[in-house]
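Re: weekly structure request thread

Next one in the queue (429 aa):
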Amino acid sequence: MSIQKQVLAVVMGGGRGTRLHPLTAERCKPAVPLAGKYRLVDIPISNCINSEINRIFLLTQFQTASLHRHIQGAYHFDPFGGGFVDILSAEQTEKSVDWYQGTADAVRHNLVHLRAFPHEQVLILSGDQLYRMDFRQILAQHTATGADVTIAAIPFPVSKIEGLGLMQVNDDLSIARFVEKPKDPAVIQSLTLSSALEAKLQHPPTEKCCLASMGIYVFNRAVLADALENNLYDFGKEIIPGLLGKKKLFAHIFEGYWEDIGTVRAFFEANLALAQPLPPFNFFDPSAPIYTQDRYLPASKLNHCRIDHAVIGDGSILADSTIKHCVFGIRSFVDEGCDLEDVIVMGSDYYETDVQLGTNTSRGRPHLGLGKHCRIRRAIIDKNARIGDSCALSPDGKTDGSYANGSVIIRDGVLVVPKGATIPAGTVV
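Done, posted below.
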């Protein structure tokens, strides 16, 4: 049976994303813009398409409007291949009136929809991670080992495993233990890779490593249904540990770039890394493109700018400014005389008309984007923000919290101007 007929993919897109707030104040995590023109959800969907998996369910719950618009505008399949990206929102039924209580609970609520399609395996993915993976490899290993469940795992240095689910893996890659987010150093030490497994890695580690779960699971169809015949809510905390010793669990070791975009700092650093000459994640790989919505925007215009490492989205206008290590989303506007360093400008959802610009001017309201002579450091300017002339924004020397009457938020040491916020001219933070 071909992969297209054998596998269904389920992308988890329903989390609140509290650690990414205020970027998730008006959208769910998978809908957060990425790399100038994409959304986080484009990553798992593109990985599926590039792996010949074209039947994809997206489970959504919180702040879903922008995510739904993006999916509906981006992913269209011809009628002959049988492919789709189907949005399954939380819904009340005769059996339940509750929202999803966790990852496992979300899948449990939607098993009835999955059963309508022929399949042998279910590939469960997170909607907020940055990585490129050929899922055909984990599926091939799953079949070859006769596994009931296969979990994608990445070697992580012991010094960086905080907040990750760790597993102890035998030399044949079968999983002996699974511990969700351990903190006890003795437990962590007991989960480090054996010498035999270290020798199998393509890139030998420079320090002791553990295998961390990537939140990517392959379940046999019947095993998934049986595993969810209960009231347990979460795969990592409850379902997977409960299957140990009862089912055949194997690890699939992945050694490529992987970043969990779970916090403002992680999002900020992962985006800015894309402006490097050789970024850790390569959007320019023609063999595995990342897909997104086609917006038919004009080419960007750069007028007398001094630019040192930048990613610039379509339809942007940058005028006579100094730009160092920045990422600009679609329809970004930067007026003359600005000085930006380590800044992510997410751009705008629309262009303002001449009438709107005139109305804004008469009311003393800044136009969309950045006004003249702004100086901004280490910041994220969310979509549709309006920043007046001569503003100076930087988190340096300041604690996390709200500033400028709540229109500026500093979190994880990064200054954030929330979506749609207006910053008056001359504001200094």
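The two ends are 60 Å apart (CA to CA). The chain has eleven helices and 27 strands.
Next request, please.
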